[in-house]
Amino acid sequence: MRAMTQLMGRPILGLPSELESRSALADLLAGVRTALLTLSVVAVPVFGLWVLAPYGDDSAQGAARTAFGLWLLGHGAPLARGPEAAPVTVTPLLLTAVVTALLVRAGRRLARRARGRGFVRWRSPLAAYAGYLLVAAGAVAQCADPQAALRSRALPDLLAVAALTAGAFGYGLWGGLGRPGQLRRLPLSAALWPAGGAERVALRALAVWAGALLAGGGAVFVVAVVLGSAGHGAQRLGGGSAGWLGMLLACLTLVPNALLWSVSYALGTGFAVGAGGHAGPLGTRLGAVPDFPLLAVLPGRGGPDWHLLACGVPAAAAVLTALLLGRAAVRWSAPQAAAVAAVVALAAAPLGVLAGWSAGGALGTGRMSELGPVPWQFGLAQSAWLLAVAVPGVLLARWWRTRTGPGPVVRIRVGAYRLVCWPAP
Question: Highest taxon of the source (predicted)?
């Protein structure tokens, strides 16, 4: 009776501390669930279009293979289509953004659950990571069939999925664990690099530069849509409700790509439109392009005219970056302010290379083997604009503020984010 009383006195759901952590199988299934959640973002519209417009030679298995192929493509995996195995490497960046956001959220949730449990917190992420890759392996196996509309390439596809998953999932874990090992002071001389949080100021300035470039690229894209013939192309190509919805979804998934192409256009480097074709503010040469609404917004042939106005976008973004750096420049010497601005300019280059590489690719062989910005030109142009405008702009802002004293505070609010451009020191 006494033993029964002691047993009933214990909390029913209480477990010993060594058993509180979840099993590896539960973490593996959590990774599988995350992969299926990201897959549903693609599978639901694909199967919806298949139900609306079922073709006689298409089946549910074919629709599933198409969904798997688009899911892999959203991870940056190279695919092939047709009997000639034409490469398809243009990544729909909207799918990539959705997949990345879901992976980051899953990493943060797992980190909060496993925080403070020593080695267990590393075993759980590895098991979840393995579960995600298990679904990716199944998708690769399904798309390896020659009958698939988008055929997979086993090793490159698995490596692409593994790289994106590791980066996004790892970032979520890092944020969920309190961001340990944050950026420390750069190993530069005190005469060139200021102390007291200059790294945070540089990161904030880099984020402002990227955000302003994307906003300006969006404005250029909207102007191109208004002046282009995308609507006429959609009316000519769309057939029935399923055709319209499919075309709309395809265009939406490629809108981030179009924004980066517009940014490259505004930077002056332009972008490739097929082998031998190029679109830029200094001139455009185009050959035959596929009938697709987004390609109908390309600028016409001819020399430079009002298209040079697009170059005001990176100039304005660089000025905004200089104003933000001017907040702290009054506390630094002139060489230190110039050094921080130069570091921001140099850090923009690798980010630009990555963005340019992810926004372009190929849609086939021959002419369609080159599409999008040239990565090294895209990154180099960003550094050049910042070095040419932001560095002297920071020095000018520092000189003006030390001469006249603090000016009025200018705050810009975009949604839930507030940007202080010219605050008092």
Answer: Bacteria
pLDDT digits (tens, 9 = 90+) for 120-131: 467 888 999 999
Three-state DSSP state, 288: coil
**CA-based R_g, the chain, Å:** 26
- Distance between CA atoms of residues 374 and 360, nearest Å: 8
Q: At 237, is the pLDDT very low, low, confident or very high (cuts 50, 70, 90)?
A: low
137, pLDDT greater than 80? yes
Paired tokens of 397: 């802002």
Q: Return phi, psi of residue 418, to 5°.
A: -125, 130
β-pairing, 278-280 with 271-273? antiparallel
Phi then psi dihedrals of residue 84, to 5 deg: -85, 5
Residue by residue, DSSP assigns 58-107 as --HHHHHHHHHHHHHHHTT--EEETTTTEEE----HHHHHHHHHHHHHHH
Long-range Cβ contacts of 140-147 (<8 Å, 24+ apart):
140/72, 142/64, 142/65, 142/68, 143/65, 143/68, 143/69, 143/72, 143/79, 145/65, 147/62, 147/65
Axis-axis angle for helices 93-114, 240-253 (nearest 10): 60
Kindly report the pTM of this predicted structure. Answer: 0.84
pLDDT digits (tens, 9 = 90+) for 153-198: 889 999 999 999 999 999 998 888 777 766 555 565 556 777 777 8
Cβ contact 161:304 at 8 Å: no
Written as six digits, the tokens of 163 are 């790289």
Say what the pLDDT of residue 327 is.
81
Predicted pLDDT of residue 210: 95
Residues 127, 30: Cα–Cα separation, whole Å: 9
The contacts found for 404-410 with CB under 8 angstroms, 24 or more apart, are 406/330
Query: Model confidence over 27-74: pLDDT tens digits?
Result: 899 999 999 999 999 999 998 888 877 655 567 888 899 999 999 999
Exposed, middle or buried by CB within 10 Å (0-12, 13-18, 19+), for 308?
Answer: exposed
DSSP string, 125-169: HHHHHHHHHHHHHHHHHHHTSTTSSSEE-HHHHHHHHHHHHHHHH
Mean predicted confidence (pLDDT) in 253-261: 93
Angstrom distance (rounded) from CA 262 to CA 58: 37
Give the CB-side neighbour count of residue 375, counting CA atoms within 13 A. Answer: 11
- Contacts of 223 by beta carbon, 8 Å cutoff, 6+ apart: none
